[in-house]
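User: I want to check something. If I give you two sequences, will you return the structure for each one separately, not as a complex?

Assistant: Yes, each is folded on its own. Here is the first sequence with its structure:
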Amino acid sequence: MNRREFLTNALKLSALGVIPFSLFGETECSEVFPDGKTAIGRRTFRGISLPLLGLGLMNLPQDPDSKRLDEKQAERIIECSMELGINYFDSASNYLGGSGEEFLGKILKKYPRSSCFLASKLSLNRIHSLRDARKEVERQLRQCRTEWFDFYMLQSLDSARAARAELLRLPELFEDLKREGKIRFSGVCFADTPELLARLLPRADWDFAQIELNYADWDPCRIREIHRLLTTHKIPVLAVNALRGGDLDDADREKLSQACRFPISLPGVVLTILHASSEQQLASVVQALNSFRPLSETERKTLLETAEKLRNSGKLNPCGDCCCSGNNPAIDSRTPASCPFSIHPKNRRFRFL
């Protein structure tokens, strides 16, 4: 059996393995292969084994001349992910100018479907009826060349989208799709305030919730409150944007490790998703999570102090479209100038303090 066959079989077993679900996660140790590469550790979610790190497709590399997806580099990143045990892939219909899901489907056809987990999102931008929503899900399935999504969620759920989703009866559609075997787990990508979340949770039937979760936003953007609400209602959390758009190539190794470990050290968090743009970035984060251990109280305190220094340095620019940017006046009254939520992709380079 060659190395590729070994990895494929190992990933297939991990995807099908039945382990009792624990909201707080049971972390399996990382594995070192004979060539020195380290496979990412894993954590239990509703009877399946997920990697601590997922790969997002939003920032896959572009060709500098054509500004289109550099398919060769992107393919190497996905293959590298599979080799490292990162077999969770996060996509959406609008990623990479709309080409992300088709590209992912083409590359992942090389592997058994049961060897990886596909996640995608339903955008309400072009959805005007229940029929539109079903057609969009089926179109995405065709794009990804698959019969089912393992994780499927409403994209960027805020107050306006929550009202539309209820009006269009999308929760019922998701349940129908689960019964039909087209979705394994359904949830939401939440992007609003704790007050809205508190109103939604009593009637929410979510298998999981995906949220932006990192050390810099923990208190200023009220992520602490959102996380507490989700764990109180025993809803597992998928975290994204652990590095706040930071420059992976310049990050201090220890700070990088702490930033990556921050979300997955929290109760109820299953994995964190990295939107990598190179194999080097992917390898850096895998190394940072090698032999994962939760943050100590001292490390946690230091990291939050670092976040405060970073905010006070003036290096965090408002992105203009996050939950507290003021673009959605229904959310809250904070101004863009006070928003430390994320760094715009065009101005995302900074050094960790």
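And separately, the second sequence with its own structure:
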Amino acid sequence: MSSEKKKLGLTSKIFIGLIGGLILGVILNLFIPSSYFRDTVLVEGIFYVIGNGFIRLMKMLVVPLVFCSLVCGSSSIGDTKALGKVGGKTIVFYLCTTALAVTVAITVATVIHPGIGLDMSSIQKGDAIAAESTSAVDTLLNIIPENPIGALADGTMLQIIVFALVVGILLAKMGERAELVGNLFTQCNDLMMEMTNMVMQLAPIGVFCMIARTFANLGFDAFIPLLKYMGSVVLGLGIQCFGVYMLLLFVFAHLNPFRFLKKFFPVMGFAFSTSTSNATIPMNIDTLEEKIGVSRKISSFTIPLGATINMDGTSIMQGVAVVFAAQAYGIELGLKGYLTVIATATLASIGTAGIPSVGLVTLSMVFTAVGLPVEAIMLIMGVDRILDMLRTAVNITGDAVCTTIVAHQNNELNRNVFNSTEEQNA
């Protein structure tokens, strides 16, 4: 009976939805002829509305969840000196892994040459979205909110994070004088967690519809001209996720990487299916606490922060895309160009919203920095949805590995939980 209940758990339902949607999508694409019912009613009607409705529900939760979670996380650490120590380590780790990710991507793409011999006439075109380039000074100033309420309304994540950290630090400093406000934020955080659990019950249906629509629209013929590009991105993501991260986990936290991957895999699967880092925040925090043994004091601070500033998977896509476009257009970048890509992609990942396909928007910033035509983004838009799923899984794995290492260094990691074979059910 218990094994039957385990099979019907939320994670299992999400994976059933994922596989079911994939199979149905492929069947619709390959075996069902184009018709009004298939294209308009089913794929762009029912699947689109339900899938995007679920994503909207998750987005609805993001701002209040991140704000309340960061306020509670930073205030629960208590000692502002300890908070600064944790925050400093986390940000340095995030920036280093992102720069490393871009380097891996450029190296892989330089070896594979994805853009050489590309038949430009066979590429699926789309509408490129340009992002305004911002100076380094303005980027720094834009972190500070002029109007915190406006930042919350607009969903400007870096400004929300700064304001939440200031509120949390002052709550910790004021202690009993702000006990009532502290309790209010704790209860708001609990409320948002309950709301998240409620929305998550719809995840299997939402995942099924999103995956079915993706595979129904993307015929396998569309992959052929871009297989080398896709292969380069996937290889880069694999090296970062299963090589770089697991090595860091073993060296800095002395943990078994295989056990970590086994326990964390459901979160990776959910991130893959939703393509949004923000949607995985609650599941990521819960899994780290219940299966990995990371104190919620640490994870409630580092995971929302990572979902905003740590986009290693996105940076890998951008690094490969730059090499791919440069080769396709016959533009020589040189060492200076590659160094510019590493710096720009690292900075562009900071403040990138954790929502589907946003990497394509920030990619235009990277292209502009090295003199590539922004129109080149059209070359990869046709296959980006599949890669977006993979890089989101890498993004959230990077957040979790960093959080685990920081927890270990601050004696907030329960190794008995990590080493236990029995996993608690939510």
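Because they were folded independently, the notes below concern the second chain alone. Residues 114 and 227 are 8 Å apart (CA to CA). The mean pLDDT is 78.
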